[in-house]
Amino acid sequence: MHRIDPAIIREYDIRGTVGRSLGPADAQAIGRSFATIVRRAGGQAVAVGRDGRLSSPSLEAALVDGLVAGGVDVLRIGLGPSPMLYYAERECAVDGGIHVTASHNPREDNGFKLVLQGRPFFDGDLQRLAAIAAAGDWEPVEEGRGASVTDLDVTDAYVARLLRDAPPEAAFRIGWDCGNGALGPVVEALTQLLPGEHHLLFTQVDGQFPHHHPDPTVEANLAHLRALVADKRLDFGLAFDGDGDRIGAVDARGRVLWGDQLLAILAEPVLAAHPGAPIVADVKASGYVFDRIAALGGRPVMARTGHAAIKTRMREVAAPLAGELSGHIFFADGFYGHDDAAYAAVRLLAALHASGRTLTEWRDAMPPLVATPDLRLPVAAERKAATVAEVAERLAVAGAVVDRTDGVRVTTAEGWWLLRASNTESALTVRAEAGTGAALGRVLDAVRAVLGESGVALPPYVPSPQA
Description:
This protein is α/β, with parallel strands linked by helices. The protein folds into four domains: 6-154, Alpha-D-Glucose-1,6-Bisphosphate, subunit A, domain 3 (Alpha-D-Glucose-1,6-Bisphosphate, Chain A, domain 3, 3-Layer(aba) Sandwich); 172-255, Alpha-D-Glucose-1,6-Bisphosphate, Chain A, domain 3 (3-Layer(aba) Sandwich), CATH 3.40.120.10; 259-365, Alpha-D-Glucose-1,6-Bisphosphate, Chain A, domain 3; 370-452, Alpha-D-phosphohexomutase, C-terminal domain (TATA-Binding Protein). Helix content is 37%, strand content 22%. The termini are far apart.
């Protein structure tokens, strides 16, 4: 039996700081317990992958040991992005998958993303796994029966699948920034086979992340990409997070297009193929996105933030497409409803080519709204939910217009703002949008005041000159 630190059991995955709250013993217990869950569900084999963090090899080895001790066969696909693990889990005749990754977290962190029989494994599933580990409630393994471990490189097959939906005539000039994350080798292989001209940044996998942190939701991390696009006069640039499931973009003028804005572009060809279909966007998405989906004849659906919640909501409403502000994009007809940034990039090329408009022209046509990125406010883990509840109570007393899909989303005369507890960090996240910079400032002043009553400070925010 082994007690896993409850603090690392997040809503959608497992993440902790290596050497402090997470180590090889935890990885082995996670493997042993997941093996029990797989076997009790009638399964026998699990795919395992890892990202490029310095701690990932040792954690992956311990995880595999636990899975084998639990009596399941293991298919090791090695270093790669999380979506490549999702691909292997669906295409390689296994019953579940685990990727060793902490996504966009700091380099000292690591963790695990899990899937079982093609579906996200999260929330109560993770609590059940931790309970099995703590009790040592593992399925016995028959004496003399050894589980097998097989190494398989699926990179070429995964890239070939990406290319199936790439437009063969779309010869764009593109910058690609992989941030030394796990997607780098895939992007190298992919761009050699795509038409057009491609300029690559930081494709060598390096868990130190020496150039910038791989998180395209933080505008400062796009500085190298903006400089490349300007210097080479490229059509646009694309950026990715550490495990390759988040996409970001900048147009030819260096303006950022966030995940919800990319979703608005991708919705057009999807709704042309699926008239009237529901399209899911998370609670942080711009009001423009929901309006755009409706204008195209689709049915906008608001969902909780978080990749597993989005996948679940997508299945509930049979949506062909979903996306988040954070750059997670999900295609039901591409990668089984999983979030895959490389696949989203390929579909973006197809959408731009089909529309006959450049990314810059798309950005020009979007309404002049001013929004913050996802502002993260460090808060102790035990205070996250309590702070949101306190704010919700005060808003109810004040008679505010509030949506409680995920946290509180408040509509005002000048815009809207959102406060929610982060799913992956000890933090609150704030997002706000208004028609002008001055109006955004007033919206944020209201947020600052209501957070201040709970002892949480919202720092001053100055919109980007590109906004």
